[in-house]
């Protein structure tokens, strides 16, 4: 399974989103369609999830996870129209945060990917370890939904 996430910077602030039922901030993005090009998929996800047009710029990194057949692509994405109006029916909330002072409840993998963006040494290829507390949180949420 392939996924793509965007780092969208506006006036030195980074866009973070929250999905319904999840108390964790994340980067905008999600699953790519089968046989979909990563850059085209990223553009499609931004358009569908946040309702604004974008230009996919640099590849920040390609990430894999232990025990998962998942590849995650992280791109720097620029709005085609500065200060675009954003709307979303898929996210419970979205907001811009100081990139050097992120909230404490940011998805751990995304913290690493934002850090890689800040170093400026990309593209990064990294195999991430499974985060135990996040695995427990996902399991707990699945149980509660039943």
UniProtKB/TrEMBL annotation:
Record-linked PROSITE patterns: NUDIX
This protein's UniProt keywords: Hydrolase
Residues in Nudix hydrolase domain copies: 1-118
Cofactor: Mg(2+)
Keyword Hydrolase: yes
Pfam families: NUDIX
UniProt GO MF annotations: hydrolase activity
InterPro entries (UniProt xref): NUDIX_hydrolase-like_dom_sf, NUDIX_hydrolase_dom
Name of the protein described by the UniProt record: Nudix hydrolase domain-containing protein
């Amino acid at each position: 399974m392939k996924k793509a996430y965007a780092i969208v910077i506006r006036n030195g602030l980074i866009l973070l989103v929250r999905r319904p039922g999840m108390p964790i901030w994340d980067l905008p993005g999600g699953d790519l369609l089968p046989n979909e090009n990563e850059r085209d998929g990223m553009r499609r996800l931004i358009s569908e999830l946040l309702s604004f047009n974008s230009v996919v710029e640099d590849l920040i990194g390609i990430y894999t996870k232990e025990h998962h057949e998942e590849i995650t692509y992280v791109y720097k994405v620029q709005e085609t129209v500065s200060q675009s109006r954003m709307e979303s029916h898929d996210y419970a909330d979205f907001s811009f945060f100081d990139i050097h002072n992120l909230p404490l409840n940011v998805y751990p993998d995304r913290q690493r990917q934002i850090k890689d963006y800040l170093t400026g040494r990309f593209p990064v290829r990294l195999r991430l370890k499974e985060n135990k507390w996040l695995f427990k949180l996902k399991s707990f949420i699945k149980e509660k939904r039943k």
